[in-house]
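hey
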């Protein structure tokens, strides 16, 4: 298991809850492997995790943006685009 780039404690990234937690990979589908490799994941309380996947698109977007910012602090924007094979049109921070 890689080390998360977003948190060091094992607690819910949103609430700080330390009970039963799920690990959420921030970039899913064919980007899940890279998410794991680069530590783009967070701990979430189970109900928040389920809600995120079922209907909370705002939370999903917030996590993707926060993680991209952190990734680019550590590596670079180019590396982010490269690793996650993103197209500029999906790049959320570029809208300044
Ligand atoms: Zn998840």
């Amino acid at each position: 298991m890689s080390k998360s780039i977003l948190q060091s404690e094992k607690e819910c990234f949103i609430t700080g809850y330390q009970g039963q937690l799920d690990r959420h990979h921030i970039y899913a589908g064919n980007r899940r492997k890279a998410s794991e490799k680069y530590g783009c994941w967070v701990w979430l309380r189970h109900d928040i995790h389920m809600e995120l996947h079922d209907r909370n698109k705002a939370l999903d977007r917030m996590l993707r943006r926060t993680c991209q910012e952190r990734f680019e602090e550590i590596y670079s924007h180019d590396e982010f685009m490269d690793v996650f094979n993103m197209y500029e049109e999906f790049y959320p921070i570029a809208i300044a």
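Residues 21-84 form one domain. Residues 65 and 92 are 7 Å apart (CA to CA).
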